[in-house]
Fold this protein.
Amino acid sequence: LEKKRRLEEERKQKEAAEKKCQEEERIRAEEERKRREQALQQQLAEEQRQREAEQARQDQQMLQSITNDIYRRVVNNFNISGLPAGLECELIVRTVPGGDVVNVTVSKSSGNDIFDRRAIAAVEKASPLPLPKDAATLDRLKLRQFILPFRP
């Protein structure tokens, strides 16, 4: 009877030990799954940051190129005759996809009305500006409305 009870006790201890091992294994597997998931999330986040940085770099290059093209086109349409040298102004230019100029106003005057009016006229004559045709790119580059520093 004592032997039977001892065997039963050993069996129960063995079962308890096995259950404990199984539970510890389950916990380790769950922790490993969480670690892998976290590593994957970090990798995906890093890849997203890299894509965004690359997009920002490309956008900056595109914006610089577009800005240079716009400036050249506007300056080519500007009548500088009879004006004093060194004048400059800032214009607010509103556009639509495709580059059509819908409005131009002076945000910072040169102090010379003729210069300011001619700058506005030069932007209007340069329309359509060399802008992206698709609205998403135009919005991403913030070119629906922008400030054009003008110093021919």
